[in-house]
Amino acid sequence: MHPPVRLVAIDMDGTLLPTFSQTISPRNVQALKAAQAAGITVAIATGRRTAYTAPLLEGLGLRADMPLITSNGAVTRTLGGEPVDRSHLEARVARGICTLLRPFGTLVFTFDQVGRGELILEDFEQAHQRIALWVEANRDAIDIVKPLEDALTDGNDPIQGMVTGGVDKMKQAEKALKASEWAGSCEAVRTEYPARDLSILDLLPPGVSKGWALERLAARLGVDRKETMAIGDNWNDVDMLEWAGQAVMMSNAAHDLRTLAKTRGWKQTAPNDQDGVAVTLEMVVARRTSAKV
C-alpha cells in the first residue's frame, strides 16, 4: 500500500497537453489546482525549456511556487521565475558533439538566458523543414551561428543541446555518441514520435535527467520517493518514472513503453486526449482527502 502522494511530477507533451495542442484542457487545469489545494506539490517535468513552458501555465490560477523542471532536468525554476537548480554542459564537450553528430540531423544548443541567443543553430532552413512548428514558436529566441562551435567558447556553457531528425537516424546518433570519446561527458535522452518519424536526442550534462532533477527536488521538499508520483509518456520520462515510488504511464505511449510499464509494475492511465492526468490526480486527491478524515 503506497502512502498518500505529496509530490507529483507531470510531463507536458503527450501527457498534460492534448495532441497537437498548446492549451491544457479545463479538466486537467482543475485537477492541477485541486491537487495543489490538497497540499500536494505539483511539478512540471518537461524537455521544453522554461520560456517554452511557463506561458502555457500562466493565467490558470496555479501557485507561483510551482516547480518547473525543464530542459529534461537541466534547469528547475518556479512558475514565478525563482531559480531552484541548474546544470551546464561544458562548452568543450558541446564543440566535440557538434563534429560527431552534425551528420545525423539538426543541432540546437540552449543557453540559460532570455531572448535572442537562448537557442543557437546553424542551418535555419534545415531546422524549419524538420521541426517547423518548433521553429515558428521559438523564432524570437533563435540566433544563427555558423559554425555552431563559434557560439560554444570556453566559459559560455549551454544548459543542453539537441539533435533532431528521423527515428532511425536518432537511434544511430545515440549509438555513435555512446561509442565516442564524449560518452562519459554527456547524457543522451531520446524522445520519439513514430507517427511523424520525428525523434529528438537531448544532450545533457552527465547524470542529468528528469529523474535526477526530481530526486533533488524531493530532497529539498523533504518528500520521500514513496510519496512521489511521476506521470509520463515517452523515453525521456523513464528515469523519473523509475525513481518515483508511484509511476503512471499514459496509455497513448508507444507499445514498447506500455510493455515496459507492465514489466515494472507501473500503473497506466487514460490517454492525453482523454485527460489521463486529471483521471489520475482526481484519484490521488480523493485518496489523500480520505486519509485525513
From TrEMBL:
Pfam families: Hydrolase_3. It is an enzyme of class 3 (hydrolase). The keyword Hydrolase applies. Its EC number is 3.1.3.-. The keyword Transferase does not apply. One of its GO terms (cellular component) is cytosol. GO terms for molecular function: magnesium ion binding; phosphatase activity. InterPro entries: Cof (IPR000150), HAD-like_sf (IPR036412), HAD-SF_hydro_IIB (IPR006379), HAD_sf (IPR023214). NCBIfam families: Cof-subfamily, HAD-SF-IIB. This is Cof-type HAD-IIB family hydrolase. The lineage of its organism: Bacteria, Pseudomonadati, Acidobacteriota, Terriglobia, Terriglobales.
